Amino acid sequence: MSGILDGLSAESYDRQYTDRELLRRILALLQHERGLLLRVSGTLLTSTLIGLAVPYGVSQALTRTRVDNLPLTAGLVLAVTLAGALSWALQYIQRVWTRQAMANVVMELQEQAFRAAVRQDARFYETTTQGQVVSRITGDTQSFSLTVTLTLGAVSQLVLVAGVLVMLWSVHAPLAAAVTLLIPVVVGVAALFRAWARRSTQQTQRAVANINTSISEAIGGLAVAKSFGQESVLLEEFRAVNETAYRLQVQQGMIYSSIYPVLGVLTGVAVLLVAYLGGRAVIAGGIDIGQWYLFVQALDYFVLPLTGIAAFWSQFQQGLAAAERVFALIDHPAPVHTGRRSLPQTAARIELQDVTFAYREGESVLDGFSLTLTPGETVALVGETGAGKSTVAKLLTGQYRAQGGALLINGVPIEEYDVAELRRHVGYVSQHPFLFAGTVMDNVRLGRAGASTEEAEAAAQALLPGWTEQLPDGLNTRVGERGQGISLGQRQLVVLARILLQAPPILVLDEATANIDPWTEMQFLRALATVQQGRTCLFIAHRRGTIAHAQRVVRLHGGQSQLEVLPTAAARARPAGEWLLPT
């Protein structure tokens, strides 16, 4: 069994909630739908009472109606039929209202979960995959919704059981007492399944999250796998996680299925008990034939709902496990940003003073790194892979916080700035430009909220005249997920146009030309000359073309900046490879 459960440990942000805590959270969610749920409760109660009237009416007919009294018999039959039809109509209305309420709850819960996922910083996603988050926002919220729907059904069944008990006790107390003895037995069976079902469900949900992660990674890296002929590796990895999920789902199905045969045995015992004791009571004259019929019929209204409640308990554990996973994501603390300062819309002075940073404890990436950029200056930061260049960019864009030293913008610690304001004032271009599915125009307009089509077109043309004509439909060209459908270089130009529209006073390029060909790089650098005007720029680069756009070049090595700081002319004279060698 341990092999099956490999990789199914709780995620780093999972929390352990008590049932009481979970129920309190669930009730708070349902408060928003209390109007609909009150109507649901009203129809539940009414349909239950009408449903109970049917067997009671039949029993009265058997007791009081003579065979030759056809009008009275016909009237009772008609009344029972109408009562059954009305009960069915009320149940239909109740189900419609229940689905509407649950749809509203799921929408609210998914929005809360998505908001929590967006709120997290880059460090959260270092240990959490996209597939795991997607599974919680989609699959677990749906499982939770199904369980709440089942809960309402269980409440209906509970009301029905209570109504049947009241009716039976009013007819014949000794026989009703025998039927009532079934309740603790059924509750005991349900309790035995509780912990087993909860644990199995949590493991199954984690396995499903692993499937989502595997699919997401496989599709995202499919082009790379194909280029190396390694599609079979992806298939084997997926087959392994799928096999784990399959085994756990079969195991979960066995748990849920095993409760029904046990409850079926209890139902059989109840029928035999009522048939035997009721028959003896009729012979002894304690009850009449109509009342005995009422007890036999009432078993359907008592035992079946009671077994349904017991079976529901294991399904309820599935819902609690799903709710626990969703609430763990929602409750995971987001980074606290207390800064409230605004940045001026002018070129900024940037100072990094003895900055230290480590992704993992004891593994410093930056160790006493210092660098100053004056307003309007462009500095190229070079160094070998893993030296910490991209880390500097992430610190400057607010994705991470320095663990030592200070990062100042215009003499103010970066922590004092409002983080949303900071990111609006820092334009960031990575070597992997990200475009959302839609049109090129849509992606350019992301640069500034509320930007008009005309402003986006003006920014695109100001960037590099004529480049949009190379697109199939100009700015109206549709792109797929992550910008599929246009070249990497064109995606970079879209990102630059977006930044031109954003008009940030600070620009950070993180190996932006690393993956494009020389011709596309030439176009990109021409566009870059337009974008960097009047801005403080930090270019992380290896290529000489990008370095040539800088006024100074600083080499990062061993987590520290080298003392050697070269102006552009001297940098151009050095072979590009020399920048990667330690001095």
What do these coordinates show?
It comes from Deinococcus aquiradiocola. InterPro entries: AAA+_ATPase, ABC1_TM_dom, ABC1_TM_sf, ABC_transporter-like_ATP-bd, ABC_transporter-like_CS, P-loop_NTPase, Type_1_exporter. It is a multi-pass membrane protein. This is ABC transporter. With 583 residues, the chain is of the alpha/beta class. Helices cover 62% and strands 12% of the residues. It has a 6-stranded mixed sheet with strand order 6-9-10-3-11-12, sandwiched between helices. The protein has a 4-stranded antiparallel sheet with strand order 2-1-4-5, with helices on one face. The chain has a two-stranded antiparallel sheet with strand order 7-8. α2 packs parallel to α5, α2 runs antiparallel to α10 and α5 packs antiparallel against α7. The N terminus and C terminus are likely disordered.
